[in-house]
Amino acid sequence: MERQSASSPDAGQERVMAAAKHIVKSLAVSKNAADDMMHFLSTFDPRLHPLSSPETGDEASDSGPDDAPGRGGDGEEEEEIAAAEEVIRRCNSSPSSSETIGMMDYLYAVDDAIAAAGHSARAAAAVHAAMPRLEEEVRSLLSSSPRRLSLSSDDVDEAATPSASPRHGTLSPDAAASVRGVADRMLRAGYGPELAQVYVSARRDALAESAALLGVEAVAIEEVIRMEWGVLDQKMRRWSHAVRAVVRTLLAGERLLCDEVFESDEELGHECFADVARGCVLQLLGFADAVAVSARATEKLYRTVGMYEALTDVQPDLEALFSGDGARGFFAGEVSSTVEQLGSTLRHTIEEFGHAIHGEASRKAVHGGEIHPMTRYVLNYCGLLAESHGTLDVVLGDAGVNDADEASTDGCAAASTPSARCIRELLTLLLYKMNDKSRLYDDAGLQNIFLMNNLYYVVQKVRESPPLRELLGDDWLRRHRGQIRQYETAYLRASWTAVLSTHLRRDDGAASRPPAGHKAAAPQGASAKGFNAAFQELYRAQTAWKVTDPQLREELRIAVSERLIPAYRAFLGQGSRHPARHVKCSLEDLENYMLDFFEGVPKFVRW
Q: What CATH number corresponds to the domain at position 540?
């Protein structure tokens, strides 16, 4: 019977445990060394898990078979608690022991303590003692080696997307899995608030660091107001791209990480994510608010449109990240407020731009009747507005435009949209202002050259810009091309009627060929000399006038030639008794002189 009993499984296990304890007790020079040996042996056989030190091992062996390891009962649990307590104590007190035992063994010890904490004060105390180490582990993992995100200076003109996947944000997948393992134990132990505090602190700092790499930084309103335009322009441009990256990569990744770490407590996870994201989101919105309330300079409009479009683009994504009526309502309200402020800024900036056009009061005429700088500026401005017409339709609504009746006559459905009416009104203000500017010129012919130059530029820019052409319509283009022809006619009348009717006339007063079959009378010397003087003056003046567009310049020369050359040919055809004395210019010379007109370089004819 003794032989059979000794051969039983329980007896064999007892002998293994006893032998192991004897070896450890014989070789160990200290209690810590003994514990280290027990831990080493346990890696070969789980039955050798260090349930006790050599000293307690003797006591365990003396306590009878009911309390022996592997036999169950209170004795076994007490040994497990004692072992867990010892591992926790050693790792907490000695960094070298912590390195020897390793984090996984520490977590197994915590598991044992948590399992018994509900009915053992000793186990509960061990769990409590383990929490600082677990908190530090969570903090270390959440702050370790974040993946770098950045937008280079070359990326700000493109819809740049950071390279990191939204999964886990800037945290590596391995680190995220480790955090979850530690967090699960803290949550099971009832230390959710402590976990939340550590988690929020670490991830809030990591998120702020990553957002800063994308160009998101805290800027006070006073700084924005004082900022030079070149610096502010760069910041506004970067913000428009960074807000998309922050919402769709950083915050989306943080939400996924939160969901994973707090899988067993979703409500706490939602609260933690809101706390992590709050500072970053408010910092993003703070810059946009500062831009919105700063001076509404016209040069800021295009960048403000970009910021408005970027924020409204990510608005649904941002609001969807938050759960719970409280958090979602808070962030939705903050975003909506900023969107409204940016929209209000856009409306007032456009309105003030119209006032600036109307109130422009410089009294300096542009040399040679060239295109006025204001015309170029306004057309560039309107072109940018046209490119964002969808956004402007939302922002403007029915505000600030009063020419709906004109819109119905343009033959284009887009012409009735708020953006189309806005652009049409700005161009109308511009053309009225150019009409006022034309009065700065004393010469009526130059007044019409100036008006022609500016209107032709407007029409060409509208024709060449698909968004502008679509918004204003072909009827608008036809009407204004007709106006250009009217300015041309007015120019010809103002500049050439006197020459044609006074100096290149027949004796009967007509400025055309003599009737067929009639002999022409000799021209009057006074008429020839008068034409010479008049043409010299016109040549001096109109070579200094500038018609910027080559096609328009050629059209004007042709229009002048069609009136002047036939009349001069007829004038010469009448004959003269003293052609050398009075006729200084041949027909060919006159045609060549015409090629110098409207080049903006004054020239002189010396006869």
A: 1.20.1280.170
* CA atoms of 265 and 295, how far apart (whole Å): 47
| Residue 371 falls inside a structural domain | yes
Contact in structure between 261 and 191 (CB atoms under 8 Å): no
Contact 604, 539 (CB under 8 A): yes
In the chain, what is the straight-line distance between the N-terminal and C-terminal CA atoms, in Å?
Answer: 149
Q: Are residues 184 and 325 in the same domain?
A: yes
Burial class (CB in 10 A: 0-12, 13-18, 19+), 103: middle
Q: Examine residue 456 and state whether it is found in any structural domain, yes or no.
A: yes
Does residue 606 sit within a domain? no
Q: What's the number of domains the chain is made of? A: 4
User: Residue 367's CB: how many other CB atoms inside 10 A?
Assistant: 10
Question: DSSP character for 502?
Answer: I
Which among 381, 388, 352 is positioned nearest to 461, based on CA atoms? 381
Verify that 251 and 331 share a domain, yes or no: yes
Under 8 Å between Cβ of 484 and 452: yes
Range of the domain at 127: 2-131
**42 pLDDT exceeds 50?**
yes
What is the per-residue pLDDT for 575?
A: 59
pLDDT band, residue 571 (cuts 50/70/90) = confident
Reported as a single tens digit per residue, the pLDDT across 193-218 is 999 999 999 999 999 999 999 988 88
> Encoding tokens for residue 29?
């020079």
Q: Could you write out the DSSP letters of every residue in 246-272?
A: IIIIIIHHHHHHHHHHTTT-HHHHHHH
Question: Do both 328 and 387 map to the same domain?
Answer: no
Q: Is the pLDDT of residue 532 over 60?
A: yes
Distances (CA, A) of 510 to 17, 503, 525, 578: 136, 10, 17, 22
347 part of a folded domain: no
Q: Which amino acid is at 606?
A: R
Q: Give the end of a domain, one of 463, 490, 517.
A: 490
Q: Tell me if 505 sits within 8 A of 499, measured CB to CB.
A: no
CATH number for the domain that contains residue 279: 1.20.1310
- Whether residue 400 sits in one domain with residue 269: no
Place 448 in a pLDDT band, splitting at 50, 70 and 90: very high
Question: How would you label 561-589 residue by residue, b for 16+ Cβ within 10 Å and e otherwise?
Answer: bebbeebbebbbebebeeeeebbbbeeee
Per-residue pLDDT of 218-271, as tens digits, reads 888 899 999 999 999 999 999 999 999 999 999 999 999 999 999 999 999 999
Q: What are the φ/ψ torsions at residue 600 (nearest 5 degrees)?
A: 80, 15
Lowest mean pLDDT among 15-24, 108-117, 222-231, 336-345: 15-24
- Residues 481, 487, 488, CA angle at the centre, nearest 5°? 90
Residues 266 and 400 in one domain: no
Q: Are residues 483 and 510 in the same domain?
A: no
Q: Report the range of poorest mean pLDDT among 101-110, 282-291, 356-365.
A: 101-110
**Residues 313 and 421 occupy one common structural domain:** no
pLDDT at 365 over 50: yes
Q: Diameter of the chain by CA atoms?
A: 163
What's the pLDDT tens digit per position in 69-128?
Answer: 443 457 788 888 888 888 888 888 866 655 557 888 888 989 889 998 888 898 899 999
Together in a domain, 191 and 295: yes
